[in-house]
Structures are given as structure tokens and as C-alpha cells.
Predict the structure.
Amino acid sequence: MPQVPVEVQLRTLPQSPGVYQFYDVDDKILYVGKAKNLKKRVSSYFTKNHEYGKTRVLVKKIKLIKHIVVPTESDALLLENNLIKKYRPRYNVLLKDDKSYPWICIKNERYPRIFPTRKLIKDGSEYFGPYTSMKTVRILLDLIKGVYPLRTCNYDLSKEKIEADKYKVCLEYHLGNCNGPCEGFQSLEEYDEQIQDIRRIIKGDFKSSLNYFRSQMKTLASEMKFEEAQQVKEKIEVLENYQVRSTVVNPKINNVDVFSIISDEAYAYINFLQLSHGSITRSHTLEIKKKLDETDADLLALSIIEIRQRFNSLSRELYLPFEVPVEAHLKITVPKLGDKKKILELSERNAKFYRQERFKQSMIIDPDRHTNRIMAQMKKDLHLSEEPRHVECFDNSNIQGSNPVAACVVFRNGKPAKKEYRHYNIKTVDGPDDFASMEEVVFRRYKRLLAEDEALPQLIVIDGGKGQLSSALKSLDILGLRGKIAIVGIAKRLEEIYFPEDPIPLYLDKKSESLKIIQQLRNEAHRFGITFHRNKRSKAAINSKLESIEGIGEKTAEDLLKKFKSVKRIKEASIENLTEIVGMSRAKKIYEAFH
């Protein structure tokens, strides 16, 4: 597809959290921004009168809008930070500095310290985050330190130095903020148990802590210490609203290429996420038009080579949805659970959104393209001599042979033409005989079209297997239409497609658009037929209730229903009101029957 106008790109943006990137005519990045709702935020650039000249110039230069969809607004903020620091766009001024988002560090040492940091040092320490606000970090650390007394000194608390009385307790010990491990007043086992509890709190498992703070808040309130109780309440709210996991930044995942693939019958969409030092630094989706019956594995293998060469990727590990052959020095991981699986799902999500946008854009730019492609695909899949622009589908409805009816629905260019739908009362068949009913309704439909010199369909779809299809063929033979109209049957059990005089059915791919249209036809015919059948049964039940009264026939029952609308109202009517419609004699019989 050629370059899509910006107006069309705006109309197809998703209403999801994410990061957007503006590019100029030379494909140079101009600006990176975040949004809670990508469509609303990006559209605002083109609908507002901007106060600053810099923004007006930026908008004039935008020729391409790219975006990365993420699960939450918090993730969008973190990803925006990563991309601005990597690409340093000209029109971004706020986050170009080297300042990074804060983390919580549990230091790799005996009696570990816990503190905030903006630097990740690979010394075996644990890092949790990143957080979008240092305030959140400090409140969380205050919560932890309020429950667990921890050391803040930077002493080397080795076993030998503690046993040699190298250190003396400081003011923090006397204030109750530390249990004095430097003098051996607290065992390493007890301290490590505290660290385990703190890990759970940081990871989001803080049920016991919440219970503790709630009881503390109630105690303070009962002691009339309302200011302190309010401070505890704020800590509870922070904990309850605390989001621990970031999908877009994870220090445990380092220098990895993530690939996923979404495909349909005509195109495949391969998304590429590049992770460097635990952060997403690039997202790109490649669109490939299928020429043969290539498998997803073949297309993914080829795309991995092309994308890695295009972006000069040196990563030695790949996260993939399934195994594919790659260069020997590359490690493949197929994630099943955890953070790696979340990253792969994020890639798949971006591929799906890209596919939806391309589809919507093609519908706007070339509305007939999608229809033409589906018609061509149906012609190929069903081995037709011409495209099925006009399709009709038949279905029978009856319950234990009562009130047998049939429905005919019409699709034109793959879409319902509801004004052309028809329903039929079965006239020549007694009892529940689907085959004979199908033969009758197909004969009546096309006898009338021929008599009125109306256009015949290119394809007839029969709801049913070989039996119903054979019955429909009998009618076409009588009318001399055998071979002039293509006809197939669709069986419900395995959605197999039957052709005349071919005992082996066709099984279309479950994702096939051709199968989806045939299923839609079948379902629409069933819906239309069953609705008509229910209405007829309901009307028949009402009429039979009235007609069971001696001297009341079908015509009288219809007259009464036209006037009173329901049997209940007829029952409640006075003799005088009934007399106006059916005369005194029959009015008395009706009144006496109901009373």
C-alpha cells in the first residue's frame, strides 16, 4: 500500500494506551509522546489551535505516525522515556536529559540495605521498578521501614567484624529504627526473613501489611490522633493503587529481539520489539503479501533475517511464538509464562493492531479492494467459474413437523441485502421432511425468478449435508438450471462443504474468510427462518385458542385480534365491546367461554 495520508492514519489509530512517534517526509523522527488514548491524543494535534509556534511547525512537518500499544498508561510513560533517550527527537525537550526513572534496590550484601536509585549496577543486587514517580518510591520505602526496622549504614557487616566488636550501635538503634545487627543484636536469619517479607510487599503481595496499617489507623483514630491516622490512610491508598509490574521495562531481560506473527489468507504481519538493557527501544511491524501457500513458520524465519539486517541487530537471543530455523549462534526462547510471555504477548498485540489499521486504511482509501479480494478468494476456494457477487442461502425450520417454513437470505458483495430476504410457508409437504421441504422452496424461488426475468445468483448455499443438497439439485434439474448456478451444502458438524456428485467434502481453514462468509449466510438464514417460525407458531396457538370456541372460525378470530391485539384483552372485553365486532350471538359464546 502506498503512503497513507495523515488524515486516514488519524482515523484508524487505536483507542488504547501507548506511545506515538511523529516522522517527517524523510522518515526522520520528530517527536515522541505518550497517551492514555492514542486516537484522542494524536488527533488533538491536528484539531487544536496551538499557542506555540514550535508546535504549529511540528504539525506541518508530520507525514507519518507510528505507535506502540502498551497495557497501561504507566507503561506508556516509561516507554516514552526510553525512546526519547535513545532517539533524542528534535521537538522533545522535557526528557532528553540523562535522568532516568527510579528503582528500589535490595543490595547484594550481608544484612542488605534497601534504598532508591536511578542507576542499575550489575553486582548481583535486586532491582524493582521502574517507578514513574520518586514520591511513590519514597512512600513505599517509608511503609517498609515503618514496619521493618532496617539498617541504613554502609558498614561491612561481615561475621568476623561483628564478632570482633568492630562497630557500635548508632542513634538509629536508640530511636528504634534499627535492631542493631552491627553489634550482633539481630541475627542474620531474622533479618533475611524481614527481607523476604519486603520482597513480597514490593512485588505486590502486601495483604498482611494492609491489615497491619488498617488496624494501626483505627487505633490512632480511637486515640484521637487524626493527623497521624490520615498519614497511615494515605499509605494504605498508595499500597492499594500500587502497580508493581512494568511490561516495557524489566532488568531481568537484557538485549533480546522479540518477534510475533499474525496472518490471514492474503497477508502476514510480523512485529519486532527490540529490548536493550531491559527496555523496549524499538517496535516495527513488517507487512508481507503472500504469493504461495507459505506457512507462518516460513514467513517468520525469512522476516527475522530481513528485520535483523535492516536494524543491524546484534542480539543473540530471540523470543518467538514457536520454533523456527535460525542461525546457529542464536538462542531461541518460546515463552510459556511470566515476564517473557508478557513481552511476546505485547508484540502480538501490536501486530494485531497494525493489521486492523491497515485493513481500516484500505477500506477508507479503496473501499472496493476488500470486497474484490474476498470475492476472488471465494471463487478460488470454492472452485467457481465466476466471483459470487450474488449469493443466496436456504434453511428449513420446523418443530416436530408443526408449521414448517423456510427462509432464503441474499448476500451481495459479501454483505446482507435484507430487503431481498424471503420466507416461505411449506405447502406440499406433510410432516417433518427437510429434504422435500428444501426441494419445494428452491423450486418456488427460482421458478419465480425465471418467470419475472430476475437475475440469478452465482452461488446457492444449502444449510445441510448431502441429503438437502441432493433435494435442491432436483429442483434445479426440473428448472433446467443444473450447471448454470453453482451450489454447495454446508454441514453443521464439522463445517464441511459438499459439492454436487462429490462424496468427499471440502474442509476450509477455520480462519478462512470464505468460510466465515458461508457461516454468516447460514447463521443469517437460520435466524431469519426461526424468527418467522416462532411468529407463525405463536399466531397459530392464539388462533387455535379462539377457534376452539364453538361457532368461532379463523376469520372471526383474526377480526377479534385485529381489534383487541391479544387474547388477554379479548378475555377482559365486555359483551357490548365484543358485540360490536362479531355480533350478539357469537359475543355471548366468547364471553361465556372465558368466564
